[in-house]
Design a protein that fits this description.
Length: 124
């Protein structure tokens, strides 16, 4: 039985469809243990992908040779941040990646001080 002309060209498996997200996260909408991850948490790989690893896990490990935020990983993988958080929790539990808190704004140098130094250097 055919789907008919109104369904021609339809993908059975949409890249961002809920079915794919369900499969990618094994039906989980949250990490098993509440990981302290937010959109600006930086993720860094600790090892290389292994054979038999889920493709999304392997992609995260490959792309995080240098620190990337959860938001950046989500954008590069074209996956919602909630899905990426579940995947990252799996990788954190396995010791494949580590999470680093971003530098707090209070620890950054004062903008006015930096501007004063920059203007002083320009005058030299």
């Amino acid at each position: 039985m055919s789907d008919g002309p109104q369904h021609e060209g339809r993908k059975d498996w949409e890249e961002g469809g809920p079915e794919r997200l369900y499969v990618v996260t094994a039906g989980r909408s949250r990490p098993a243990e509440q990981a302290a991850l937010d959109l600006v948490t930086l993720i860094v790989s600790r090892d290389a992908p292994t054979s038999g690893m889920q493709p999304e896990h392997a992609a995260i490990i490959r792309m995080c040779n240098y620190p990337l935020s959860v938001a950046e990983i989500s954008a590069y993988l074209h996956l919602p941040a909630s899905t990426v958080t579940v995947l990252l929790a799996d990788l954190l539990d396995g010791g494949h990646v580590e999470a680093r808190a971003p530098i707090p704004a209070a620890a950054l140098p004062d903008i006015e001080l930096l501007e004063a130094v920059m203007h002083g250097l320009q005058r030299l």
